[in-house]
């Protein structure tokens, strides 16, 4: 084994460990159920991704798939023909291509976000000190067919729209949220913040909150 091969093996092992830990953390916090949710880490020109159909809080390194990062490449790991990559692979490929500064992408069907967007409500991250500081922008993407090129493109464009500050999470109508980071831990942290914001917003609405933040309607400049 060459030095380069050894380094690649170490990076792959570290990425697998991070994905497995991230999946377990999402499960422990009740942010995923059944086989939903997905995670990816970029390793050079490839992505290490979670499989379709398996619980993400019960994965082992052998369950993860290494696929080309190129959006136009075949969506498979030639060494694992028995497993299919996440059905949201288009999202991961599009986001990694649009954001070369990040290394990890996490997606989960956050229950509070599903309820809020089903009711037609969009929370303002300025409402809470944590989200105002750590997630100051939260773009919203209307519902589109899951796994479609259109949805992948809309999410990637929302995360790389050139605005300041840059968005690091996107709220999806009835489809949870997608978050990015320099590592899996950061991406999952941001998913947790989206869930917190949506949960508090929903609770506040039930207590009579009118959707105005600091005297302004939610989402206003």
Number of strands: 9
Q: Level of helix content?
A: 25-40%
Q: Strand portion, in percent?
A: 15-25%
CATH superfamily: Class II aldolase/adducin N-terminal domain
Structural class: alpha+beta
Q: Could you please say which CATH topology applies here?
A: L-fuculose-1-phosphate Aldolase
**Total of domains:** 1
Low-pLDDT regions: none
Give the strand order of the largest sheet, numbering strands 1, 2, ... along the chain: 3-2-1-4-7-6-5
- Using only C-alpha atoms, the radius of gyration works out to 18 Å
Number of helices: 6
* CATH second-level architecture: 3-Layer(aba) Sandwich
What would you call the shape?
globular
Oligomeric form: single chain
Q: pLDDT average, as an integer?
A: 93
| Major sheet details | 7 strands, mixed
What is the first-to-last residue Cα distance?
Answer: 57 Å
Spell out the helices and strands N to C. Answer: HEEEHEHHEHEEHEE
**The first-level CATH class name:** Alpha Beta
């Amino acid at each position: 084994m060459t030095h380069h091969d050894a380094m690649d093996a170490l990076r792959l092992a570290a990425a697998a460990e991070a994905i497995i830990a991230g999946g377990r953390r999402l499960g422990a916090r009740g942010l995923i159920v059944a086989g939903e949710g997905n995670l990816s880490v970029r390793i050079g020109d490839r992505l290490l991704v979670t499989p379709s159909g398996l619980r993400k809080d019960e994965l082992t390194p052998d369950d993860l798939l290494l696929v080309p990062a190129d959006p136009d490449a075949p969506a498979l790991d030639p060494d694992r023909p028995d497993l299919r990559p996440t059905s949201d692979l288009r999202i991961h490929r599009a986001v990694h291509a649009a954001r070369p500064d990040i290394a990890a992408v996490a997606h989960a069907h956050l229950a509070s976000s599903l309820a809020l967007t089903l009711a037609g409500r969009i929370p303002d991250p300025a409402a809470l000190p944590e989200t105002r500081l750590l997630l100051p922008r939260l773009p919203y993407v209307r519902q589109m067919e899951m796994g479609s090129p259109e949805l992948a493109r809309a999410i990637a464009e929302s995360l790389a729209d050139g605005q300041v500050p840059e968005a690091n999470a996107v709220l999806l109508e009835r489809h949870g949220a997608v978050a990015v980071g320099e590592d899996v831990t950061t991406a999952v942290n941001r998913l947790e913040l989206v869930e917190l914001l949506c949960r508090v917003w929903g609770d506040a609405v039930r207590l009579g909150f009118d959707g105005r933040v600091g005297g302004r309607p939610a989402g206003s400049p």
